[in-house]
């Protein structure tokens, strides 16, 4: 398995608002730039997605893959792993840790480890991971804060 990378961001919303946006997979294409489709293919009995199929097109990188999800009972941690290798990935493991702060904001920590099917120098891979995580967290923050303002 590849080394993991971790980044955090503070969101002006409650942990429940953050978790609601993260768990609303079918709406990801509305706010995630490279994601073309997200389809829940299996659910747990409580209605949360257990497997989600993603279609990504980021120009030089296009891929389709399915992730299996698990959730902490209070949704303070949402984690996933790649169900089977895809065209671009051998493996993927990730998680969001969602922690409420005393000032009514929430810290979201994103951890990701991806092993690509194509070779990439370690330095370039780490730079790509940083860009992916940075973009994902900023897009999540923007979506959650916009959703909170609309409520």
CATH architecture, by name, is: 2-Layer Sandwich
Q: Which class do the helix and strand fractions yield?
A: alpha+beta
Q: State the low-pLDDT regions, or none.
A: none
What name does CATH use for the topology?
A: Alpha-D-Glucose-1,6-Bisphosphate, Chain A, domain 4
| Outline type | globular
Order of helices and strands: EHHEEEEEEH
For the largest sheet, list the strands in their spatial order: 1-7-6-5-4-3-2
Rounded to an integer in angstroms, the radius of gyration calculated over CA atoms is 15 Å
Q: How far apart are the termini?
A: 41 Å
What count of structural domains? 1
In which range does the helix fraction lie?
A: 25-40%
Number of helices: 3
CATH H level, superfamily name: START domain
Q: How much of the polypeptide forms β-strand, as a percent range?
A: 35-45%
CATH first level: Alpha Beta
Number of strands: 7
Average residue-wise pLDDT: 89
Summarize the main sheet: 7 strands, antiparallel
Question: Topology, please?
Answer:
Blueprint: E1 5-11, H1 15-23, H2 28-31, E2 35-43, E3 49-58, E4 61-71, E5 77-82, E6 89-100, E7 106-116, H3 122-150
Antiparallel strand pairs: 1-7, 2-3, 3-4, 4-5, 5-6, 6-7
Helix pairs in contact: 1-3
């Amino acid at each position: 398995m590849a080394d993991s990378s971790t980044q955090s961001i503070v969101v002006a919303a409650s942990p429940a608002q953050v978790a609601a946006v993260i768990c609303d997979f079918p709406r990801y294409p509305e706010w995630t730039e490279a994601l073309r489709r997200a389809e829940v293919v299996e659910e747990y009995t409580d209605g949360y997605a257990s497997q989600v199929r993603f279609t990504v097109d980021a120009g030089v990188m296009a891929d389709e893959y399915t992730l299996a999800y698990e959730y902490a009972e209070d949704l303070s941690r949402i984690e996933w792993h790649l169900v089977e290798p895809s065209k671009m990935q051998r493996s993927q493991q990730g998680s969001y840790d969602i922690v409420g702060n005393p000032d009514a904001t929430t810290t979201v920590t994103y951890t990701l480890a991806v092993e690509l099917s194509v070779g990439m120098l370690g330095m370039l891979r780490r730079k790509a991971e940083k860009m992916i995580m940075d973009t994902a967290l900023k897009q999540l923050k923007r979506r959650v804060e916009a959703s909170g303002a609309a409520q």
